[in-house]
From TrEMBL:
The keyword Transcription does not apply. Residues 17-314 form the D-isomer specific 2-hydroxyacid dehydrogenase catalytic domain. The keyword Oxidoreductase applies. Belongs to the D-isomer specific 2-hydroxyacid dehydrogenase family. Coiled coil: none annotated. Pfam families: 2-Hacid_dh, 2-Hacid_dh_C. Residues 107-286 form the D-isomer specific 2-hydroxyacid dehydrogenase NAD-binding domain. InterPro entries: D-iso_2-hydroxyacid_DH_PdxB (IPR050418), D-isomer_2_OHA_DH_cat_dom (IPR006139), D-isomer_DH_CS (IPR029753), D-isomer_DH_NAD-bd (IPR006140), NAD(P)-bd_dom_sf (IPR036291). Signal peptide: none annotated. This is D-2-hydroxyacid dehydrogenase. Keywords: NAD, Oxidoreductase.
Length: 317
């Protein structure tokens, strides 16, 4: 088998071992591939690994040897799955590898917004504590999480793990999902989206991006939130209408936001949210702990090995 990795750097910048994949066939690994390079590098490949590299219909039609696209992620919107199926190309993805890491990042954003550890550490290192007349000071209001309500939109593996951690902080949990299961935890109250927005001190998004929910956090939904509430998004950037969020943050109609994702990634250097003190932004790295990336690589290698044996798994339908 000829195996090509089109964009392997974010998965493995050098701290993981590619050899389990390399042992499965003749393997070429590229850190990144431009749109112009994708076709050239994939030519003659039996198996292609892609994270964000786009494999559209016109490209797939030219790859006559291609049998499998192994997506090194859960999302696969960069693949024309319909065209792949028409051409007899299997597509598989990796699921539930990053739940613990993304849940951890969610709480990290919440804690930074409520406790401002980074801001105060910078202040101390700049000498402000040394010059202070008092033994303790605060540059911003600090908020205790115990007794507060977190509303979780999307209650899959990650949302459930966030709920578990939040309950450890003494928080109440509201959840909104398409199909609540009857056997879900009694510690979670399932409510409508409007009820969740109106009654949560923190709203955390953990739902997949679909045509139906694109931009559902907008002027109307933000207006339902408390002026002290926080919005957290570690899911997909386009769930939020960013201009509406900017206006809500500038107008202090919500208390703050913590975002690990944006509509365009990487963003423009003059993105308007960059100037807001009540908005934290991290570079879509919630998934990228060493442990999470190792699990992802293990799943992808297992997917490829199973396909070669004729026992394909994690197929996208």
């Amino acid at each position: 088998m000829k195996i090509v990795v089109l964009d392997g750097f974010t998965l493995n910048p050098g701290d993981l071992d590619w050899s389990p994949l390399q042992n499965l066939g003749t393997t070429k690994i590229f850190d990144r591939s431009t749109t112009a390079q994708i076709l050239e590098r994939s030519e003659g490949a039996d198996i292609v690994l892609s994270n964000k590299a786009i494999l559209d219909k016109s490209t797939l039609q030219k790859l006559k040897h291609l049998k499998l696209i192994a997506v090194t992620a859960t999302g696969y919107n960069n693949i024309d799955v319909h065209a792949a199926h028409e051409l007899g190309i299997s597509v598989c993805n990796a699921r539930n590898y990053s739940s613990a890491s993304v849940a951890q990042q969610t709480l990290a954003l919440i804690l930074e917004l409520t406790n401002q550890c980074g801001l105060h550490s910078t202040s101390v290192k700049n000498g402000e504590w040394s010059r202070c007349e008092d033994w303790s000071y605060r540059l911003s209001a600090m908020t205790e999480l115990a007794g507060k309500t977190i509303g979780i939109v999307g209650f899959g593996h990650i949302g459930q793990m966030v709920a578990q951690i939040a309950r450890g902080f003494g928080m109440q949990v509201l959840a909104n999902r398409k199909n609540p299961k009857k056997d879900e935890s009694n510690d979670v109250e399932y409510v409508s989206l409007d009820h969740l927005l109106q009654n949560s001190d923190i709203v955390s998004l953990h739902c997949p991006l679909t045509e139906e929910n694109k931009g559902f956090i907008n002027t109307q939904s933000l207006a339902l939130m408390k002026p002290t509430s926080l919005l957290i998004n570690t899911s997909r950037g386009p769930l939020i209408h960013e201009k509406d969020l900017e206006q809500a943050l500038r107008g202090k109609s919500i208390g703050g936001a913590g975002l690990d994702v944006l509509c365009q990634e990487p963003p423009y250097t003059d993105h308007p949210l960059f100037t807001l003190e009540n908005c934290l932004i991290t570079p879509h790295h919630a998934w990228a702990t060493l442990e999470s990336r190792q699990r992802l690589l293990d799943i992808v290698v297992d997917n490829v090995a199973a396909f070669i044996k004729g026992e394909a798994k994690n197929l996208v339908h």
